[in-house]
Amino acid sequence: MMTLDDIDHALLRALATDATQTAGALGRALGLSQPATWRRIRRLQDAGIIRGRKLDLDAGKLGFGVTVFLGIKLATKGRVSLEDFERAVTAIPEVQTVEHVLGMYDYRLRVTARDIADFERVLRRRIMTLPGVGNVDANVLLSEERRLGPLG
């Protein structure tokens, strides 16, 4: 495991806030040269701490006004059922994330839809027909606050 110093943590916080910042701009903010900042970013990437930079789209402005979190309990357990379920669920474009979890449910899905009627269509035609689906619990997202997590 790589040891991080205060500058590494500050760099990660800055990138988590805005990953489009240049190494020069980050360096100026942190009191480093552009090459020294770039070397640190590269070292964090090589260590797997920075896994990539993602585009953060506003689903609502793209016409997807509803986000629903689904808890899925599979009807049958077993390796084949898990693999079949995972393969099928990841092929559904409205499913944004698939998390295999421990607890009341086997999977937690984040599903986006244009509206509630669209979500109902996705639920009935795509999710409820997946291999092995048993119980399904839905929670509609009302609002979301983004946090930096352990870096803050």
Question: Could you give the topology of this structure?
Answer:
Blueprint: H1 6-17, H2 23-30, H3 34-46, E1 66-74, H4 79-89, E2 95-100, E3 107-113, H5 116-127, E4 133-140
Antiparallel strand pairs: 1-3, 1-4, 2-3
Helix pairs in contact: 2-3
Write a short abstract of this structure:
The chain contains five helices and four strands.
Can you give a write-up of this model?
With 152 residues, this protein is α+β, with helices and mostly antiparallel strands. It is built from five helices and four strands. It has helices spanning 6-17, 23-30, 34-46, 79-89, 116-127, and strands spanning 66-74, 95-100, 107-113, 133-140. A four-stranded antiparallel sheet has the order 2-3-1-4. A hairpin with a 6-residue loop joins strand 2 (95-100) and strand 3 (107-113). Helix 2 crosses helix 3 (34-46). It is elongated, with a radius of gyration of 20 Å. The two termini are 20 Å apart. The model has no long low-confidence stretch (mean pLDDT 90).
